[in-house]
Structure formats: structure tokens, C-alpha cells
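task queued by scheduler; priority normal; single chain, no ligands, no partner chains; default sampling; output format set to C-alpha cells
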Amino acid sequence: MAGTTAERRDAVEAVTAFHRSATEIRVQLDWLRRYLHGLDVDRLGMSPARFQALMIGYDIYVRMLEDVLADLADALQDRPRSDDEPADAWR
């Protein structure tokens, strides 16, 4: 990171806050997934196959969100993330 000491300190604080927020988002998404799996699918009025398909989509979107958060964390640190690096590296 280039810039003055104050700018670098502010950037480090921003990255730290970002990581904390990203972790909180992940915890909430994990809780939501467990909650959804605890629902009675029949009472929701859908087949188990439909519910499973929706959960697969949920998992895909969670992964996409993790990838975006990892890219943003790296951008805050002026460090591009390679496509081969796992998104959970920001955790």
C-alpha cells in the first residue's frame, strides 16, 4: 500500500473492519442455511426435490458472495487474488 502513514493505518483499519463484517455475514448465512434445513418441506408446500434445488442455488449464491468479498478484501490491500486462490482465504 502506498501513501502516508495515516493513509496506510486507515487502510489497515478498513481491511480489519471489512474482514470482521465478512465473517459476520458468513455466520448469518450459515445460521440461515441451518434454519432452512430445519423447516418442514411439506408444510412449505413444495417437494423435497424442489427444496433441494433451491438449496443448491442458495449454496451457489453464497459461494459467489464469498468470492466477491474475497476480491474486495484483496482490493483494499492492493493485492489481486488469483482465480486459483480459495475465496475463504479472507476468513
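post-processing summary
- The chain has one domain: 5-90.
- The mean pLDDT is 82.
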